[in-house]
Amino acid sequence: MTKRGTVESNWENTWSTRSRVAEHAPNVRNEYEVLCMNANHATVRHDHQQQRYVLDVDGKALGVASYQQDGDRQIFTHTEVDPSLEGQGMGSKLIREALDDVRQRGKRVVPQCEFVAAYVKKHDEWSDIVDTQ
Fold first, then answer.
1. pLDDT one-digit tens code per residue, 7-60
2. pLDDT one-digit tens code per residue, 98-109
């Protein structure tokens, strides 16, 4: 399900904690992979520990695609993008980069989230990595 709201405020405490941890343990930064960057300064990174992909725009977390790991499958459960990004294709960018990462790692996708399900239905180039259940 796609929910509209301010993702940045939801994750503020998490980012603050991560920043403090990173100061004392620089290797912790390696758990984040920057997957893509474009002219709008939008990046998608994979937060393995929290099981989510995060869309950062100009340094602010404005989108998230959460999943649960089940063996070689990533079950996408929730996608949320800030309303300020509506109509800019950022939700699609978030999912596209997440799916590309899943494919590169040889995993499968279970699209329980309505947004992810609609995206893979519309874009059949992902059908090779999609499990319905």
1. 444 444 333 333 333 443 343 333 444 444 443 589 999 999 999 999 999 889
2. 999 999 999 999
Within 13 Å of residue 111, how many CA atoms lie on the same side as its CB? 20
Quote the CA–CA distance of 5 and 57 in Å, as a whole number: 15
Show the DSSP H helices in 1-133 as ranges: 7-24, 90-104, 114-122
This prediction has a pTM of 0.71
Cβ atoms of 116 and 109 closer than 8 Å:
yes
Residue 73 to residue 64: CA distance in whole angstroms? 18
b/e string for 8-30 if b means 16 or more Cβ within 10 A? Answer: beebeeeeeebeeeeeeeeeeee
How far is residue 127's CA from residue 2's CA, in Å, rounded to a whole number? 21
- Domains of the chain are 2-124 (3.40.630.30)
